[in-house]
Amino acid sequence: MTPPPVLSRILVWLVGSAAGGLLIALPDSGPRLFSFSRAHGPSLVDFLGMVIAVVAWLPVVWLIWRHRAALRGLIGWLLGGLALAGGALLAVTIRADLGLWWLAPVTLLVVAQLLALGSLARRAGQASSSRDAKAITLSW
Asked: Which residues of 41-50 are buried (b: 16+ CB within 10 A; e: fewer)?
């Protein structure tokens, strides 16, 4: 039996995020490709980690964006706030050369995505068990 597409894509997201994060966290080797700040700039290995992480995250972000109407009310505001805070803090920690503090905003971004996926999955389950509700199909 093959896993549902959503579960396999979430697995790709998790593995890609872990692999990309691991490559980024490795000690730098080689020259910088470009600089974000005095102490931050990706080497080729870091850049590869960034690309892997972003490519792994994009399908999940697309899924959440496509079903954003289901994320209304308090959960929508919470998720939006977490994502906004995570993105802003990530930019600040990298620009201010705060070392490994970039892991805190990345954690906020991951938590926001996990909460959004959980909320969408719960709503899809509720919609499919109700005859009157339109089912939320978590397809890509």
From this structure: bbbeebbebe
